[in-house]
Design brief:
With about 650 residues, the protein is an alpha/beta fold. It is built from 23 helices and 10 strands. Strand 9 and strand 10 form a beta hairpin. Helix 6 runs antiparallel to helix 8, helix 6 packs antiparallel against helix 9 and helix 18 crosses helix 20. The chain binds adenosine-5'-triphosphate.
Length: about 650
């Protein structure tokens, strides 16, 4: 089976949904950040970063207000720091001039401003007050930084939450084929790991903005004091940054490969982990371990490649910038005759900018890495939200009264060689038990999946009491249909919660009543905590037959009046089988439910009021078991085989019908 879509290509492209502003459920999202004209600063970003920013805002529901708040907090942090650093210059001037403030005021505009400020506060200018001012500015910076860190952190966590909520909601309302295509393992990894990494782009972009503001602030200070050396220094820094472009490119490619490898690894891991029993019994642990080790080696190699690229950035950048800046200083001192205080400021600023430049290089790498995670999230979100289940019906289905009719129904799975169902025309009567039989691959499960509209016919019609299935709302139709698969779904929850999953408001008494009818009550009462016993993941603490009886009780407790069962007695011993049959008989006898059973056992078939025999997607026969022709049919083979099997004893006659 393959539902691989174009989005799966892993070519690093963003899905074509960047401009949509609707969530999967059709709910309008909080206004996302449009790339323009709202924020011209975004235009300074490379196109891929801009796309990442826009997609992060859209999927993570980041509002303009939040972006603005972070932007302002970053600016305040930087301004307080820059002013604090710039204050070193007047401090040095003050020391150098032996505290001759009038002379300093005469000489410099900065000093005039400073003296005015101190005057308005009625404070004297001395070494202590100047130092105090620096301390106050640094303190203000730290407080702002504290608020900023909290704000970034909470926004990142909110984005992470929004990404997860959005993906989960969209996946659950997507078509069955799309849900199945993603796979449980990779979905968990996607929602848990990829969303967290993608959300950390919030901090990356905030840091990027911080770098931009720091460069602007320090650039302004340097330019005001020494324009030519500053220009030289900026050219040097830009050139040095360009020299590490290749490592950023390498990171981008490795990150794409890493995300694809993570997807494959988690998909296989979850599949194999669930198959632990087979692996143990097949003694294939060593083989499985070898394949897994290959995959973890790939993950390790790719991640190491990113670490290596990241480590090379400062290795190249630091000596290069140091050399270029020293050369600039040399030129400035030798040929541009700058003063000692400007030289000092220059050195202070450069020392402060060095880690910022290195930080910028790391941010570039970080954005490339996380953009790959976000792309994976965005691609999956596009995949699931572009394939919502068709739900245009407006009528409320209030239960089956007469019949379900299939009229020339065709259905093919994508990429399948032949139709799973073709020319199917058949009627299923209400309040009767209909058994669907046929060899493996005949189309029995497909027929059953069509009823709650998990899949929809390619052509033909399915009518409930003469009304097309698609005229009903999906939720009302599905509420009226309870489904019990051959391998029942049991959650890691208590017995009572498992049983009332379809009807959470059911009382404990109602739960006990259906469990008695499904012959589950007796074994539940023997459990350590009775109805409050947790059943473990997938109902690991139960036998297959017990799982089936819990699932049957769940189906009986629902508001459904159509019960779909996939061989409900398949995993039961003879005694339990009889009990479940009695429960089913009673349901049908009460005339409340229409029971449709995929039957593999002759005893189930014999019990049915109506049989539908399928083979290779086509209807072979339909009617009451006694009326069906025994010529050339799967049914006949079933009867012949059944009559030779002592286990298939005749079932006691049912009462009430
Ligand atoms: P079984 O008794 O073995 O469960 P079935 O009668 O229920 O078989 P279906 O599961 O309905 O048969 O399958 C009918 C046909 O459709 C088969 O040929 C099967 O290979 C194909 N098929 C079923 N599910 C898919 C799928 N998800 N993708 C592609 N083909 C599918």
């Amino acid at each position: 089976m393959s539902w691989r879509t174009a989005h799966d290509s892993g070519d690093g492209a963003w899905p074509a949904t960047t401009q949509r502003h609707e969530s999967a459920g059709g709910h309008p999202t909080t206004p996302a950040i449009a790339p323009s004209p709202m924020n011209p600063i975004l235009k300074l970003l490379p196109a891929t970063w801009r796309a990442a920013f826009t997609e992060l805002a859209r999927l993570g529901r980041v509002t303009r207000g939040q972006v603005l708040l972070i932007g302002v907090l970053v600016v305040f942090t930087v301004v307080f720091e820059s002013v604090g650093v710039a204050m070193i210059l007047p401090l040095l001037d003050f020391v150098q001039s032996d505290g001759d403030v009038p002379a300093l005021v005469e000489k410099s505009r900065l000093w005039r401003m400073l003296a005015g400020g101190f005057d308005s506060l009625s404070m004297p200018i001395n070494l202590v007050t100047l130092s105090l001012l620096i301390v106050v500015l640094i303190l203000l910076r730290q407080v702002t930084q504290y608020v900023a860190t909290l704000t970034f952190g909470s926004l990142r966590l909110r984005v992470e939450k929004n990404l997860r909520d959005r993906l989960f909601a969209a996946a659950l309302s997507a078509q069955a084929s799309v849900v199945q295509n993603i796979g449980a393992g990779s979905f968990v990894e996607l929602v848990y790991g990829q969303c967290a990494r993608a959300a950390s782009l919030v901090e990356m972009f905030a840091k990027l903005w911080g770098v931009f503001v720091i460069f602007a602030a320090y650039g302004a200070i340097m330019f005001a004091n020494a324009p030519v050396p500053s220009l030289l220094a900026i050219v040097c820094i830009a050139g040095a940054l360009a020299s590490v472009n290749q490592y950023v490119r390498i990171t981008r490619h490795l990150s794409e490969d890493l995300v694809a490898a993570q997807k494959q690894f988690t998909r296989r891991l979850s599949e194999r982990y669930r198959a632990w029993r087979l692996i143990k019994l097949a003694d294939s642990a060593a083989r499985e371990q070898a394949v897994s080790a290959e995959q973890t080696k790939t993950l390790y190699t790719l991640a190491l490649g990113i670490v290596r690229a990241g480590a090379k950035i400062p290795l190249v950048l630091t000596p290069l910038i140091t050399f270029l800046v020293l050369a600039t200083l040399y030129v400035s001192v030798e040929h541009l005759s700058i003063t000692v205080s400007v030289l000092t400021l220059f050195v202070v600023v450069i020392l402060r900018l060095m880690p910022v430049v290195l930080g910028f290089a790391r941010i570039r790498q970080g954005i490339e890495e996380r953009a790959a995670n976000l792309r994976r999230v965005a691609t999956a979100e596009a995949e699931v939200s572009q394939a919502p289940e068709p739900d245009s019906g407006t009528r409320v289905f209030r239960g089956l009264k007469r019949d379900i009719t299939f009229e020339d129904v065709h259905f093919s799975y994508p990429d399948a060689g032949r139709s799973a169902l073709a020319h199917l025309s058949v009627t299923i009567l209400a309040r009767r038990m209909t058994a669907i039989v046929g060899p493996s691959g005949a189309g029995k499960s497909t027929l059953v999946d069509l009823l709650p509209r998990l899949i929809t016919p390619d052509s033909g019609a399915i009518r409930f009491d003469g009304i097309p299935a698609e005229a009903f709302t999906l939720s009302s139709l599905r509420r009226a249909i309870a489904y019990m698969p051959q391998e029942p779904v049991i959650f890691d929850d208590t017995v009572i919660e498992n049983v009332r999953y379809l009807m959470p408001e059911a009382t404990p008494e109602q739960v006990v009543e259906v469990c008695e009818r499904a012959h589950a009550d007796e074994f539940i009462r023997e459990m350590p905590d009775g109805y409050d016993t947790r059943l473990g993941e997938g109902g690991i603490r139960l036998s297959a037959g017990q799982r089936q009886r819990i699932a049957l009780a769940r189906a009986l407790l629902s508001r459904a009046n159509i019960l779909l069962l996939d061989e409900p007695t398949g995993a039961l011993d003879y005694e339990s089988e009889q009990k479940v049959k009695e429960a089913l008989d009673e349901i049908v006898a009460r005339g409340r439910m229409t029971v449709i059973i995929i039957a593999h056992r002759l005893s189930t078939v014999r019990d049915a009021d109506h049989l539908i025999v399928l083979r290779e997607g086509r209807l072979v026969q339909a009617g009451a078991p006694a009326d069906l022709s025994r010529d050339d049919s799967y049914y006949r083979a079933m009867l012949d085989l059944g009559s030779e099997r002592p286990a298939e004893r005749p079932v006691p006659a049912r009462s009430g019908r």
